[in-house]
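Sharing a chain and its predicted structure for anyone who wants a worked example. Both blocks are below, sequence first, C-alpha cells second.
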Amino acid sequence: MLALKLLASHLTREEGADTKRPSIDARVLSRVTNLFIVKKPIELKLDDRRELIIKLETVEKVYDIFISDDIDLILRKSAAEQLAVIMQDIKMHAMVKKLCLTDKIIEYLNECVSQDGEVVECLVQPSLTLLRKVLCADPVLRVSLSQQPSLLTLLFRVSLIFHEDCTVVTEVGALFCLLLFDEVSRMDMWSDNPSNKPSSPSVFSLPVSVSRRYHLPVHVLGHHAVSPYSIVLPLSADCLALKPVSDMLRIAWNLSWYHGSDNLLKQMNSETKIQEFLDTLKLSTEDTLTLKMTHTASGLKDCLHSIVQAAAHREVRAALTRMSFYLLNDRLSFKGGTGPCGITLKSLSWHTTLNRFLQVLPACTEDEKLLIDIIHFLNKLLKEQRKNVSVELLNWLLELLLRHSPNPLLELLVLTESQAREEADDIRTAVRQQLQKELVALFNTLLLSSVALTDRKCLELFYVFQTQLALKLLQCLRVTDAPHFYGLPSLERTLRGMAHLTAFPGWSSHSPFTKPLEICVKYLSGLLEVITSFYVEHGGNAMSFMGKGVTKSTVLCLLHLSHEMMAQAQSSEWMSLWFLPLRSHSEEHATTQQGLAWLIPLWVDRDPEVRFTSLGLGSALTTLETGCVALANSCQNISGGLWGTVVNILLDQSECSMVRREAAFIFQNLLGIPMPSVIIKDYTWQGPCVHDEDSGLSLIGKPALQALLYHCHFYEHLNQMVKHCYLGQYMFDPNCSALNGTSEGNDLNGLDDSFKFWRAPSRMSSQDRDPSSLSTLETMVAASSASAEFQPLVLCTAPLPEASHDQFVAQGQHETASPRLPHDSSLSAPLPRQCVFVTPPLLSAMCSLLDSLLATTPGDTANAFRQARLIELLCSVADATLVETSVQELRALLPASPPVEHTQAQVSFLLEYLSSLSRLLQSCLVVDPDLVVQDELLKPLITNVIRVLTICTKDISDIELISAFYQTWTHLFNLLAALLRKAGPASFPSITMGLARYWATVVDMFCRCVGLSSTCPTLCTASLQFLSLLLTEEAKTHLQDKDKTSLCHSPTMASLLDKTQESQKSLEQLNEVILQCYEGKSSRDVLKRVAVNALMSLLAVSRRAQKHALKAHLIDSCVEQMKHIHAQLNLESLRPGRAALKKKEDGFIKELSIAMQLLRNCLYQNEECKESALEAHLVPVLHALWPWLLMDDSLMQTALQLLCVYTANFPNGCSSLCWSSYGQYPVQAAHRGAPGSSLMLCILKMASQVPLENTAVQQMVFMFLSNLALSHDCKGVIQKSNFLQNFLSLTLPKGGNKHLSNLTILWLKLLLNISFGEDGQQMILRLDGCLDLLTEMSKFKHKSSPYLPLLIFHNICFNPANKPKILANEKVISVLAACLESENQNAQRIGAAALWALIHNYQKAKTTLKNPSVKRRVDEAYSTAKKTFLNSEETPLNAYYLKCLENLVQQLNSS
C-alpha cells in the first residue's frame, strides 16, 4: 500500500500530469501490483557478428523513415521493426548513436502518453524493443538515463496504458531492470581487482542475490553468489569452551545418538541407565527438564498427570496455563494448520481429566477461579481448531452441556435468587462476572465452530443445545423487573451471546416443552423492553449513556428474530407483536400510538452499524404487506412519510453504502405490493401520496411515485452513483483513528466488527437463495478534500447531519400531506464537490430496485432509463477482468496479495452485482428490448458475460464463494437465453463469436454445469436451456439464410462442435453428461425435459453427438422404451377407470413423443444411425403403435417426422416399410389388420382418408410418401394398392382462383418423385387421363412450386418408351412448346430440355415437332437466347439452355 501511495504521488506531482494519460485513480493503480510479473521473460542477448550483413546506407534510410513525420505511421512502424532486427547486431549500435535514436524514441513515448497520443500507439512496442537493445549494449547510456526520474515515470505510464498488452509490459519491465539495477550490474563495481582501464562493452549481468530476490521479466547472467565485500570471521579457538555452545552440542549429540527426541525421552524415563559416552556429553538436570517441557507430547502428558495428582487449585491452574502455552505455540508456529499440541490432544484422554471439574457447581471463590481457567482453555482450544474442529470434542462438550442437573456450565449463566440477594464482596462479584463472561465466550465460540458440522449425532445435539441456550440467555435478560438497573457489561455480554445464537436458522424449534413461536415472542418482549428502556425513551443515543454495543447487539438480535418468526409462524399475525405504545414527550398524558415508530430513531443513530441493522430490520418486516402498512402508518407524523424517508436515506450522499443498500431494499419491498393509480376507498395499500400546497392537487399510487422520483431527481442521482462506483478492494489508512488501540471487538466473539462475520438475508431471487456478500463495517470511500492530488482511498464512517432524530419527529403533517423536501435539500442539490464512492453491493441493490420499478411502471421507467442512459452505465461497471484478477489472486496467492478474506469479499460483491444486473437486463428485454439491443452495449456485455462464465474455479476452496459463482452463472445463462428469445438475430452472432473465442473453456464449463444436476439443479437447467436455445437459433438462422450468399465467415456452432480437434474429449464428455442427465432422471423431473430439449438440439446439429449417442446405445434404448410404452398402453386400456387411464395415457404419450423426437434427431442425415435403427426393428415397433398414433394428431405428426428422416436417402429403410410385421415383433396390434399387412399400407390408407382440415398431418404424410416414391419396393406397393387413382379425383380451381390447392401441390410433388424412375413413369402413364389433368394443372400457379407438372413431363420425355404416348398427346406438346415463350427462364429451360429429349434418337418426333408453330417458337427462342447470353455472364444453366436450343434447331432443320 505504501508503494502505491508513493507511485501515485510521483505520477500526480510530475510536471504536466493533468495533460498525460492515463488519469491516475484507484482503478488504474489496482492492477499495478502484479503488472510486471510476466510469463515469458525476455532474453537479453545480442549478436556480435564478424562482418556487417546490412550496409550502413540502408540503416540510415530505414532510420530516416522511422523519424519522418510526413510518412504514414504504418511505414514508420515497419521501419522501427526493421531497426529492432538490425540492432540485434552490436556493431550496428555505433551508427544509430550518431543519429540520436534514443532522443527520438523518448519523444515518441512522450507523445504517446499525451491526451491525443492514441495515434502513435502503434510505434510504442518496436520503439521499446529498440531502446532495450541499445541500453543493453551501452553502460554509459544506462548510467545517464537511470539518473532521469522523468524517464522512469514515462515508462511506467506507458505500461499502464498498455497493461493488457503483455509484449509492451514485458519490454518496459526489461527497461526497468536495465535502468534500476545498472549500478550493481557493472563488473568493475564488484571486481576484487578493479582495472584502471575503461571496460569494454560487456554482457549485462546481475548478482545472484538480485535474481533470487526479484521476479525479473528478463533472463540475465548471474555473478557473485557471495558478495566479495562480505567479511567471514574466523572461528574462535575458545568457542567450544563457551557454555551455550557446549550445551547445544550436548543436546544435539544426545538427540542424534538416540535418533530423535522420542527415543531420548524413553531412555530418560527408563529405569536402566547405560553409560555409553563421556560424562561431558551426559544431559544435565536442566537439559532433561528443558527437553521434557519443549516436547509437546511429553509436556501435555505431564500437565494432565499434574492435574490428576494435584492436591490444590493452584497446581491445576498452573497445569492449565502450561497447556494454554502449548496452544499458543501451535498458533504462532503453524498458522492455518493443526500443530503438535492439537494433534497430541486428540490422542490423549484429557476429557476424563477435566470432566470432574465440569460436573459439579463451584462451592467457593477458588472453585470459580479454577472453572474460569478450564473454560478459558476450552475456548482457546475451540478457537484453534475452528477450521477443523474435532467431532469427538464437540460431542463431549455438547453432551456435557445437555446433561441433567447439575449442569454447571448452563446453570452458572443465571444467578439464583439467593446469589442475587447475598451481599458479596467485590472480589467474589468480579470473579462471578468473569465466569459469566468466559461462559458466554465459550458458547459463542462453540456456535461458530458448529457452522460446518456434518456429523448427524453432533448436529442433533447442537440443535437441542441451541434452544436450551436460548432459554438460559432469556433468563439472563429477564433477571430483574427493573431494566433501568441492568449492569451494562452483563447486559451487553448477554445480548452478544443472543446475537450469535439467533443467527442460526431454527434456533427456537428444538425444545420439547416450549413452542418455537412462544420462545420468539418472549425474546421479542425482552429485546423491545431493552430498546424502549435504554434508547427510545431517552431520545436515542443523543441523550442515552448506554454503550453502543447494547444497541447494536439488540437490533441485530431483532433482525435475526424477524427471520425466525417468519419461518416459524403460520400466518402474518405475529407482526402486531412488534408494535409498541409510544408516549409523546410533549404531553405527559397524551394518547399512546401502536406501531413501529420505535424503529425510526434507530435509522438515524450515530453508529452506521446500528443504522444499517435497523434498516435491515425494516427491510425484513416490509417483506410482508402487513409490515409495509404498519411501518407506513408509523411514519405518518414524519415529513414525507415512509416513502420520503426511505428515498432521503437512499439518496443521501453523506451516508455509507451499506445503510443506503438497506434503504433500497425497503423501497423495493414497498413496490412489491400492487398500488392503485387513483384513490380507492377501503383499499389497504395506497402507495405514496403527494400533495402540492400551491395548486392543491393530490396524487396517489403510481402517479405519486413518478412525481416523487421526479422531484428527488432519482435517476440523475443514480447516474452519479454508477459513475462513482469503486470496484477495487478497500484500502484502509493505517493512521485512521478508528483502527488505533485495541478493544474487545477485535476478538472473534466481539460484535464491534461483527458485520464481517454476518451474512445478510439473500434477496437475489425468489426461486433461489444466493449467498449474500459479506457486509463491511464502513463502505463509504471519500476523496481527500485537502488537495486535488491523489490520496489513498480511506474507508470511514460519515455520520448524518446534526438533525438526526429531530428531522423525523412529528411535525404535524400527515403522510398524505407532502413528501416534498426543502429547495436546499440534498436531493435537489447538485452532487457535492467531495464525491462519495459507492460500492458494488449498493449498486446490486439499486439494480433490484430498478427491476421492481420496471415491473411497477414499465413505460415510464423504460423512458427514464433511456434518458439517463442507465443501462449503458450499469453494463460498463460489469468488468470480467476484475473477477478474473481476483480469482487469480485466490488461486495463486503472492506475498504482496491482500488477505484472502478481502479478495473473497470483493469477488462475492462483484458476482452479486452481475446477478442483479442480469435480472434487470432480463426485465428490460421483456419490457423494451431496444434498451439492451444496441451494438455498442451488446457486444462488450456478451463478451464480459462469457468471460465470467469461463472463469476457472477449480482451486477455490471456499464453499460459499463457489455457491456464489454457481448462482451468478445461473443468472448469466438466463440472461443469454433471454437475449436469444427476445433479440435472437441481433445477439446470436455476438454470442457465437464470444463462445468461439473461448471454445475449449466453454465446453469444459458446460460439462461442469450439466454435471451439477444433483447438487445445483438450477444451474444445470439454465445451462441446458441456453444450449438448446443457442442451437435452435442457429438452425433458424441457417434456414433463413440458406438461399442467401453470406459474406460473413463467422464460426457456427455446428463447425465448433464437429470440426474442432482440441476440445474433442471435452465434447464427448459433454455428450455423456447430457445423456446421463436425461437417463438418470424420472419422467416427472423438470430437469429431464430440459435435458431432452438440449439433447435434441445437439443431435440435430452435431455429427459427433450422433456418433456418441450411437455408441451409448441411445437408439436401442429409445426403441426399447417405445416397446415398453406400447405394452403399458395396451395393459392400461384393459383396466377400468377412464379418468385415471386418461392421465396415465397422457404420461405415456409424452414419453413416446420424446423417444420418437430423440430418434428423429439422432437419425438425421446419418446412415450409420439409420442402420442401427433398422437393426433395432424401428418400423415394426411403429407399426404396433399405429392405432395409438391414429388417436393423437401431434403424436402422429412426430411419428411421420421420424419416418421422413429415417427414409431420406436410405433405401433399406424404405424397403423395411413394405415388409409384413408378422413374426418380427411379438406384440401384435388389435386393430392392425391382417398378418400380412405392412406399415406402408397403413400410410397409404391414411393418406387416402386424411381430412382436408388436418393440413399438418396431411403434409407430413405426403412428404413421407415422397421419400418412399424413390424406392423401387415402395413404388411396387403404391402401384398394387391403386393409391394413385386418388390423384384423378382431385378438383381444379374454379372461378377467379388461379392457384392450385395445397393438397394438389402435395400430389404433384409425390408424382414428381415417382417420375424419377422408369417404373414410376409407367405408373403415371397407365393412369387414364393423368396427362390431360397434368396439362390442365400446368395452367395454374403456386408460389412455392410453380412448375411441378412441367418437371413431371420433363422426366417422362427422357424415357424412349414413353415418347410415343407424349407425342400422341397434342396438349402436352403445346404446353412444352409454350414454355419457350415464357417470361421465366426456369420454364424455358424445362421446355427446351423436354423437347430435345423427345426428338433425340426418335425420328417420328421430328415430324411432329416440325409443326410450323413449334418450329417458329424454337427458332425465336434460339435467336433471342443468343442475343441475350452474348452480352451477359455465361452460367452453366444458360449454357445448357443454349445447347438444348441448338440441338433442337439442328434436328428440326435436318431432313
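Comments welcome. Strands lie at 42-43, 205-207, 218-219, 221-223, 689-691, 698-700, 781-782, 794-795, 836-837.
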